[in-house]
Model the fold of this input.
Amino acid sequence: MKVWAYQMLRHISKLAGSIRPSVHIEYFYSHDLSEIPEVEPRIPVKLTKLRPGEGQRIREVWPVPVQKTESRLKRGDLCYLGVVNDKAVSYHWVQTSGSHFVQPAGKDMVLNQGQFMIYHTRVDEKVKGKRINPFVICTLLKELKEAGYHQGLIYTASTNQANQRSLERVGFRKILQVKSLRIGKRFYSNWKASI
Done:
């Protein structure tokens, strides 16, 4: 009985730690697409767009559920894959219309005509520092500008200083700071969800 009680207390203690409230700060950035720099990656990278039915490719970078990937593609979101030696090493999601759920604020944000949101980006640890992130971002900014969009948006955690520097180097400017209360995996804020 004592062993069971001890195990139960450890389990309860772990649960309590995972739901301890904390303050989270997210920075929002905007790019007006007027000046987009040329960025060359430090290694050869092929850029491709993920198509429906190819959701498993993203798992080469990170274990994202295939059905989540496929539902985003079905909704019309774009996923840019950076590929090195036939292996995906990065992904960058872009939503161009509708309502975008900003998880770190716990709110939906409606994208206005001409706006797009870059979200859920990841570069494989093995190729970080090779300028893949700014290369992909600048490439997709140019492509979306040619398609008639006029404002690119992206958000990042206040603790991700490397990403903030990278975004500012390619012309993004910080426009908003959103504080939220994080409890477990949920976020709560009083942000009005518009930019």
